[in-house]
Design a protein that fits this description.
Number of strands: 4
Strand content: 5-15%
Order of helices and strands: EEHEHEH
Shape: globular
Number of helices: 3
Strand order of the largest sheet: 1-3
Structural class: alpha/beta
Length: 74
């Protein structure tokens, strides 16, 4: 339901690991490339996300994170 990305490199931000992996698998199945965030991006994400978040790709902000966390991570 979201617009298509301009290129073929994507990152997924999720609040649940399982659906994040499913989304990553679907994206790769469509020819998109999952990219790891740069060290600078990880530092910015760490400033607004819980310490228990996973900063690979997909980025998992954990299920109890408030919606503000997802907005700030984009």
């Amino acid at each position: 339901m979201q617009p298509l990305p301009a290129g073929d490199r994507v990152a997924i931000i999720t609040n649940a690991g399982g659906p994040g992996i499913m989304a990553a698998d679907a994206a790769e199945g469509l020819g998109l490339k999952m990219v790891s965030p740069s060290p600078a991006s990880v530092e910015k994400l760490k400033a607004c996300m819980p310490a228990s978040a996973a900063f690979g790709n997909p980025i998992d902000v954990i299920g109890d994170a408030p919606s503000r966390t997802l907005r700030e991570g984009v």
